[in-house]
Amino acid sequence: MPAQHVPPSATKTRLLNGLGLQVGNQQHEQIYLMIKGNAEQGYSTLCANRQNLKKDFENCTGRWQYNYVKDEAIVRAIGHIESLAIPALKQWYEHWGVAGKPRNFVIDWFLWHAFRNKDPRNKPKSSTSNFHADDDDNAAAAGPSVSHYDPVRDEHVPAQRSR
């Protein structure tokens, strides 16, 4: 079953729905956590090399934002993350129809969120293996006054309810 493409700014619930994964299914939650862990390693690898920064951001200090990184570096990181995936994850990428694509949107979503969650302008996220600890949807349920920093828009935006 090909996955329903979702943009990086989509909530976790919207991503899971698009992938046909269910909250509460332990196998699905483990898949999510494995991909998330791989993306966080990809984030660290990208941020370890200043040559990955776009020309306009070469002198930036502090935490990097997703939009500071060269597109080709993101594509390389996505390919690297996918190539290192355990066989079970590779089967899921094939199932979703994203395996081997230059811009695997599933890994891209996780990588975008790794940058977003490391951005100090967002509320601190705990680094835990609790599946619900990083739910964007919890903020959305709190109402329109809740916001987060969106590095693509370079501004704080209200949290949106999942559709």
Keywords:
mainly alpha; two-stranded antiparallel ribbon; 163 residues; globular
What's this, in brief?
The protein has 163 residues and is mainly α. 45% of the residues lie in helices and 5% in strands.
Give helix % range: 40-55%
Give helix and strand order, one letter per element, not per position. HHHHHHEE
- Output the strand order for the largest sheet: 1-2
Q: Measured on Cα atoms, how large is the radius of gyration?
A: 15 Å
- The N- to C-terminal Cα distance equals 21 Å
Poorly predicted segments? 139-145
Structure description:
The protein is mainly alpha-helical and 163 residues long. It is built from 6 helices and 2 strands; from the N terminus they run H-H-H-H-H-H-E-E. Strands 1-2 form a two-stranded antiparallel sheet. Helix 2 packs across helix 3. The longest helix has 22 residues. The protein is globular, with a radius of gyration of 15 Å. The two termini are 21 Å apart. 28% of the residues are buried. About 4% of the residues have low confidence.
